[in-house]
Amino acid sequence: MKNFLGFILILVSSSIFACGFYPFGEEIRYSFFNPSNFNYYSYSEFNYSYNSFYPNTDGVYPQGSINENENLWMKYCRHKVSIEAIRSILYNFNEEEINEKSSNEMLLYFYKTKNLEAVNYLKFAKTCEPLNGMYGDPWEKKEGATMPKRKDLINKAVAISKKVKDKEIKLRYTFLALRLAYYNNDLEQIKSLYDTIFKQQKKKDILNYWSLYFRTFAETDKALANFYAAQVFVKAPDKRFMISQVFNSKISLEDVLKYAKNDEERANVYFLTGVKKSDQALFCLEKVYQYNPKFEGLSFLLLREINKIEDWVFTPYYSLFNPAVSKYDYWSDDANNSIKDVLNRVENDRVYAGKVLQFVSNVKLKKINDPILWKLGKSYLSFVAKNNQSCLNEIAVLEKEISKTDPLYNQIKIIKALALTANQEKGKAVILDAVKPILLENQKNRKFLFAIGRELEYKQNTLDAAFLYSKLNEVVTEPRDYSENNTAVWKTLKNKSNSYRDFYSDYFEYIDVIYSPEQVREIVEQIENKRENLDSFSEWKQSYLKKEISRLYDLIGTKYIRQNNLKLASEYFEKLDIDEVASYADCLWEKPNCKESDMFDANPFFVLKYTPEFIKQQKSFKLNKRSITEHLILYLNKASNPKEVNKDYYYFLAANAYYNMTQNGNSWMMRRYNWHHYVDDTPFEDEKEYFQGNLAQQYYLLALKHAKTDKFKALCLRMIGRCEKNKLQYQYPDDYDSKIENYDDFLLSKNKYYQDLKSKYADDYVDLMSDCSSFEEYFKARR
């Protein structure tokens, strides 16, 4: 089991970044109501999770606590024996070591009180251990084969139980026989032993419920089996994981409840029903409260319901993913997975949160076992239901009731920070002074940082949102981050369709797509607005992006390239730090290429991808964003000069550069930071330009307009047709859903410029279309 869980951890931890994986489950789930802050460890296997349910490999009892069996032995020894002595006998001793020479405190007590029945029982229990798998199979779920030796031990245990005088030892022998019968597949023996001995008990202890556990497996009446399972689930914590698997949620509750003799048993049935539900379970909460309000399971059920609600609401609200536990299949149910659909469901779930809030508000706190949980739950549900001020009012009371050293106090502050931020007016939201220290104290909590950032972004404060998103990159990732749900991935409202690449986990990738150049400039300006004695929060907020200034300059310039604002693009490329990026002073105009730091494969003005060089480069210069931008400005200025005699030449060079800035070119990095060919990926503002090359086509057309020779005109048409082909491929993608037959012939028939080339320059058509090595000849024929 440990190896299996380790494998799952490795798999999950790699899923965000590994090729072919997609975020899911606990990676995307948002939870600010942490179950570990509440005292329900024995139920923790049933905390709401994408992984529901999974066993606690360390057991269901907190470290250092005394379990029911140990406690039963302590009572039997009249509390005159230490727990260490009892554990030593139970878990470490073998049959031979149980003798009067032992120094074990428990054995000394039994020999001193002449309780040989207890000593003999311990010896017999050790004899049975290899045949019942008590330690190798902690949930006792193994189906054993019938064994004569086991049958002999069953008969012996039954016979001894009838002879011993000590009532508790008699029950222990019966339990051993019953458990051995389970492993021997003797269901009738199980029924007989339980129904004649344990069923008659008025005051039931852990032995009874352990026995009822096996009796449940032997029961053929499914409704009665469900009833038994519910009682075991409540009373035997170490059997909960396996007995929950037996409970069949499809069986009518009415049929199950007819076996209940009192309100406590009814409450237990509704409790396990609620635990097993992954959808709304308010009616179970109401029924458990009605029948047994003091039951700790009622509070756990509320905790679980709140965790469900926050997944249904906050996972989609903040990340725009479907909830981690969702009935919708992300890949096969596109009709229900648009961002609009996801957010519509959020509003429905907020309404349900309001219903649970109403129930919580009507509960009488004196009747329940954990008033603090209910008070905190009430404040949090108010926030979920968008009653931010009510949430803050409740928080103000709780801050006075809970010690600042209690882990719950930080839980309160996280909710308070979220509510304070969400409670601001749209267009006027800021990081409030009351929120700042909470952010600093929880700066390693990625989902909390992102949620505050997202609230600010929704309130139109994209500046502070970006600063908070950048802090996600600063949190050191550790393996436990994934198991503890400490990751942040998200989508954007501009997503057009679902794909394997429609999410973000890095601030830069996000603002690269979503922010305007002016919004990025605002980030840089705040950092560069140097003020003396920045407060500690501002220092922390800006610390990561201070190191990213050059990268942000580059991003602003790149964004202006996408808008074809060459002048502003050039200004920001010029701002780049010469110590971190190549010195532009040595790289412009007639200087030779500096190969060591080139980021471009080839000169975009003179070289076309997959095409032999056909234009002589008269001046060499280093290739980088600034030099390419300034050359593009220069060539366009020359081409637009009325006195320029080589307009066709400069328009052609400019067209080449624009073509090379597309997905098909050698300088795509002028527009993108990562190359891809998927047209459904991310909503960049220049998406059509990147895939279609419309500007390239525009300037090839101008080159054609000013061309003087037929051969150069034919070459221009060939390049215009190439742009048209890319445009048609964008409009009619050749994917597995395509119904287009003979795809290449289809594109050719649709391409009016190739048709013009064929009709106007028939003698050149074959040369230009079949062999691009002829381009050199045609370009030289320009004059």
Describe this structure in words.
This protein is mainly α and 783 residues long. The chain has a domain at 594-780. It is 57% helix and 0% strand. The protein has 37 helices and no strands. Helix 14 packs antiparallel against helix 15 (296-319) and helix 17 (371-384) packs parallel to helix 19. The longest helix has 24 residues, at 296-319. It starts with a helix and ends with a helix. Keywords: Signal. Residues 1-18 form the signal peptide.
The helical percent reads: 55-70%
| Poorly predicted ranges | 1-19, 134-139, 579-598
Computed CA radius of gyration, to the nearest angstrom? 37 Å
Mean pLDDT: 89
The number of strands is 0
Sketch the major β-sheet.
Answer: none
Number of H- or I-type helical stretches: 37
Shape: elongated
Question: DSSP strand (E) fraction?
Answer: under 5%
Class by alpha and beta content = mainly alpha
Distance between the termini: 78 Å
Keywords: Signal
Signal peptide: 1-18
Strand and helix map with partners:
Layout: H1 2-14, H2 68-76, H3 83-91, H4 105-112, H5 116-132, H6 148-163, H7 167-183, H8 187-196, H9 206-218, H10 222-235, H11 240-246, H12 253-257, H13 263-276, H14 282-291, H15 296-319, H16 339-362, H17 371-384, H18 388-401, H19 407-422, H20 436-441, H21 446-458, H22 462-472, H23 479-483, H24 507-514, H25 517-528, H26 536-546, H27 549-562, H28 566-574, H29 625-640, H30 647-660, H31 687-692, H32 694-706, H33 710-731, H34 743-750, H35 752-760, H36 762-770, H37 775-780
